[in-house]
């Protein structure tokens, strides 16, 4: 398939076609993905979001990868729903260091009627700061989706996680159909969709292809497609899963880029465990979005500084919502470079 042919936005991918993409020689796949990427995006821009957990742990769902599930003992500190003011303070900090989107996540099966007014206030407040808003709160009904859209929520994150065939091995408390229903309500309400999955849960190539087919064959592609590498947490049932071959992970990003050419493909969870060379390869394969993560909100976070340094070294600019944000972010990068110049971190490309 030529890069141009692959670039057409399609919603009718078959398993055989997608497997053929995966099974190409690595260089051919990356070349094709990069060619597709350049037809829709500036290849040297990456969108930056900040993620904040607004309610942590004790989730009634049993997602086998998740340390927040109440079904597993992972020693995680449980926290109640954060106060609105604290969320807004965190959002203001995220904006100050250049994030353009603020994502708020709550470990719920679904938001309760009692919590919804607070959640809506958070959306309104973050939006008023001039940030794009994103939330992940579990299953939604139609009333809730409408209320969130009316409050100014731009994106709703609800991952499909894996293929329909493998899904029952990972989650038993919520069905695949429930997930698709929530996505359809989000779409109906006019919000943008953020939906992706996880590699490294013991799934097969067919399952990886099957996940991408589910996403790409939706009536509209999700605007944001997070591809996560399993973070193996002690106490969860997947703690001892085998590592994914890093090249297979890059292949997944490349195939996602080809199948959903206009979507932001996000290099998501697990990025902290990837070395800089692998992250650079991910950007080459068409990943163009990252999370800084909530830890950035504490001062002197070395991970955040490393991210800024990596951008600088690769000549990548953060994708700006407005030019003003871009300038702030660039200033933050320059500042980080000055501060890190004499530290070990500055010279260490691999850690
Ligand atoms: S629904 Fe979300 S927070 Fe709850 S266990 Fe699953 S992944 Fe974790």
Low-pLDDT segments? 2-6, 295-301, 322-326, 336-351
- Major beta sheet summary: 10 strands, parallel
Bound molecules: iron/sulfur cluster
Q: Structural class of the helix and strand makeup?
A: alpha/beta
Q: For the residues shown, what is the average pLDDT? A: 85
**CATH topology call:** TIM Barrel
Share in β-strands: 5-15%
The CATH architecture comes to: Alpha-Beta Barrel
Q: Could you give the distance between the termini?
A: 38 Å
Q: Please write the string of helix (H) and strand (E) elements.
A: HHHEHEHEHEHHEEHEHEHEHEHH
Cα gyration radius (Å):
19 Å
The fourth-level CATH homologous superfamily is Aldolase class I
Kindly state the percentage of residues in helix.
40-55%
Total of DSSP H or I helical runs spanning 4+ residues:
14
Q: Which overall shape is indicated by the principal axes computed on the Cα atoms? A: globular
**What is the number of domains?**
1
Overall strand count: 10
CATH class: Alpha Beta
Organism: Stutzerimonas stutzeri (Pseudomonas stutzeri)
Cofactor: [2Fe-2S] cluster; [4Fe-4S] cluster
Protein name: Biotin synthase
EC number: 2.8.1.6
